[in-house]
User: Fold Transcriptional regulator from Pleomorphomonas carboxyditropha.
Amino acid sequence: MFIEKKASFDEGPAAGGFDNDRHRSRYAGTRVRAPVDDSAWTRYRASPRARLDRHDAHSVLFREDDAASHLYEVVSGQIMLYRLLGDGRRQVVDILGDGDLCGYSLTGLYDCTAEALTPAEVRVLDRRDIDQSTELLAHVNRCLLTRIEALHSHAVLLGRKSATERVASFLMRFVPGRGVVGCIGPERHGERHSADTELVLLKMTRQEIADFLGLTIETVSRVLSDLKRRGIISIERNDRIRLVDVCRVCKMTGIH
Assistant:
């Protein structure tokens, strides 16, 4: 049950306690159906109740089964969420970027581990403050709906897509407005197509990509090598992949 009481965030002591700038492009097809008032959230995140923490790459924000006393809002950098099986196998369940939230739990325990992929800044938000404000809860709910949509797509990727489709889908996450339902296609300048290329800056190791896509590291490397051999991508460095023909990569995602 949500508590109707409104919390005050203008005073009081501090509480308890992917680097791709176009990371959020995978939500390009999301339609806003009505104006959204996020003024309460804006006030809260700027108040002393919201603590700004800085994390080095590969530092842990929280671990699976820790007490879920705080939410975390990504201000900059990328955060990886993952679960470990008993035998040590890892499944990366999501990659978060600017504005994304993590750490909300109904059980009182975090259901995954959050680790910074890059140097990152996060706002640490007291769970009690959120639960006591319907306006703050409304913002959290909107963020969770966006995450649900993304996780639905990821479930399809893991359950039905081939290895090539998975790697192509991953690369297209970093191309604004492309690789999603309603893909805008290559831009046009006059009567000629612009060069349909994109440079992807990867902040994940091959192993982390494999764990995200449900593949082995050998399979990820094999697919990338095959795309390079076919002239679809060029690998400038391990962390820099150029999509030579974005439209061809997009058509390999399985959404067309």
Q: What stands out?
A: The longest strand covers residues 70-76. Residues 1-34, 188-192 have pLDDT under 50 and may be disordered. The CA atoms of residues 168 and 249 lie 6 Å apart. The radius of gyration is 20 Å.
